[in-house]
Sequence to fold (444 residues):
Amino acid sequence: MSLKIVNTKYGILSGVQKIGYSVFRGVPYAKPPVGSLRWKKPRPPEPWPGVRDAKVFASRPIEEGNLPPTFYHKEFFQDEDFLPPISEDCLYLNVWTPAVEADAKLPVAFWIHGGAFINGFSSEMEFDGAAFAGQQVILVTVGHRLGAMGYLAHPWLSAEQGGRSGNYGLYDLIAALDYVQENIAAFGGDPSRVMVFGQSAGGRSTQFLISSKLTRGKIHRAVIQSGGGYHLNLGTANTLAMAEDWGKDFVERTGAASLEALRAIPAEDLLKIQMFIFGDAEKSGIRGRPFAPAIDGELLDNDPDSLLERGAHLDIPYMLGCTANDLGNPPEHPKEPGTKPLFYKATVDYSILNESLGRKPAYIYYFTRRLLGDDAGAFHSAELWYVFGTLSRSWRPKTPEDYALSEMMVEYWCNFAKQGDPNGGKLPQWAPCTRANPFVKVFE
Fold:
């Protein structure tokens, strides 16, 4: 048996009992960001009386989603049983815990989903905590604001909020980290062993978070999957001025004459305008990305590369990696034979620079397993089925070797959550990546 009832700072939660673990779904970590709280930093949730049911996943954030016939719709989003409704009321997290007692002090893996800062959600079908629970690690997955709802900057908002605006999605993640610090012990977790990990935009978010002074003491190890590194050359954070320029275009298209009027516009209408702006941005080739993290002088003092060079990022253990057919090297447009994607060198360079700063070098991986079923190869996001031990949910044909590889990766990730080092047990040794020995662990 494991914990089914937990007593948090805000009230009692009742979860779902499974074999060897319990799951608590739709746990509020902030007030709903609606009405007057739209485009404001998250506020702590309201306490509730009695016992709150935590058996159903909360809504997805406002997003267009990956629609058919896209590649990722078939890969991760075609099963409607894993598609909750869409709502602005999205600041919830999910907890899978194998703890039997509240004082178990288990390590915590805090997951940030990908989706280019405009798509994705915390309960996608490839995410599940059962395999982590089998390794005595608690998994937390987090919902947060995306797109214009999460990253709109505008002079009206800046005037209201002390001279800066935007980054609400990142502030949501920090609020969720605060929730974990205050409440994870009730789930049997250890708030001094929190591993933040994310993939794609979730990996990029992880790099932004470890680059912020606001997260000190809240993150104790970090894994960046296909979303970060050093000199990545996929674009960095917008400046606040750039973000406000995108915001001016957005607000002008809404026709709103005031901030109050802007906050009254239905979220579905704002989403349509957001997608028009994205379409125009792709055609124009303008530098920067609409509705993405910005250097606001508070959460982010500078771009992550500059902060890394100064040693201003968190001094914690790191793991970074990518897939063979990742961004910058898609299978349909291969580069020269043997050429690796942009992330590969960026992750190795990250580790070597970290070492040059007198810190521990990182552990670097390269996922080359070609998934069966089509010609996509080791595509961007392919490793997620393996990291979470959810291959059985995938439509793709699998072999015993696939399941063995997944078991290995789950154990490496969980070991890293436990001790900041992926090694342990009977696993093959994984050396850190240093200048003298730029070792990269290949998962094939």
Notes: The chain has one domain: 5-238+293-443. The chain has a mean pLDDT of 94. The two ends are 36 Å apart (CA to CA).
